[in-house]
Design brief:
With about 210 residues, the protein is an alpha+beta fold. It has two domains: about 1-75, no CATH class; about 80-205, Vaccinia Virus protein VP39 (Rossmann fold, 3-Layer(aba) Sandwich), CATH 3.40.50.150. Helix content is about 25%, strand content about 20%. It contains five helices and seven strands. Strands 1, 2, 3, 4, 5, 6 and 7 form a seven-stranded mixed β-sheet that branches. Helix 3 (about 100-120) crosses helix 4.
Length: about 210
């Protein structure tokens, strides 16, 4: 069950991957959960980052409140791994079918929309944000992204290259790509890449 967000961001040049952990440096920053001591997974990320980049530093912070940790310098890339129903991993966690309730989906979708809107101003004009979840429900994925695009004129979806076999399929008229459970031996997943245009950058940064 996913109840917290994983947030990774970078200032060029850098590479990062982070799920439900937290990392920060002059080049990479991520946050999730309440501020405080490093959780176990964040500590694991710290070890990985330090091996590839001596300047990497890992912190635990709340992605919903960037004012508590953001230094005001926009990021070139952001990966937002949102809290979700985890319906894409039911085959490995069958208890989700018992623990999850129909009304939970609307709660998750609202939280996902809030996180996306909160972190968007942290992105530099011309930068890209990847929205990702391990849910396969439209309400938590393409519906959230569609709503965001409708409300943010400075957000667009770059023309994607054709997805290699097994790395996602698009639904007619829907943004983003879905990984369908079992198609390539993977769990279910969704991701969408959003790019910030320069035209409305001034409005977005306010």
């Amino acid at each position: 069950m996913r109840s917290r967000a994983g947030f990774s961001a970078m200032r060029q040049p850098c590479r990062s991957s982070c799920r439900a952990t937290a990392c920060a440096s002059s080049r990479v920053r991520a946050s999730c959960g309440p501020s405080g001591a490093l959780p176990r997974r964040a500590a694991s990320s710290a070890a990985r980052f330090s091996a590839s980049s001596p300047s990497a530093r890992v912190v635990a912070a709340d992605a919903a409140h960037p004012g508590e940790w953001w230094d005001g310098r926009p990021f070139d890339r952001i990966l937002l791994d949102v809290p979700c129903s985890a319906t894409g991993v039911i085959r490995r966690h069958p208890d989700i079918k018992v623990l999850r309730r129909r009304e939970d989906i609307a709660v998750f979708a609202r939280r996902q929309s809030e996180l996306l809107a909160t972190l968007w101003p942290l992105l530099v004009p011309g930068g890209r944000l990847v929205y990702a979840s391990c849910s396969i429900l439209r309400a938590e994925n393409s519906a959230v992204v569609s709503g965001f695009l409708a409300q943010h004129p400075d957000a667009t979806m770059p023309r994607p290259d054709p997805a290699p076999p097994g790395l996602g399929r698009s639904l007619a008229g829907e943004p983003g790509l879905y990984l369908i459970v079992g198609e390539a031996g993977t769990d279910g997943f969704y991701y969408a890449c959003l790019e910030k245009t320069t035209a409305a950058a001034g409005t977005a940064q306010q």
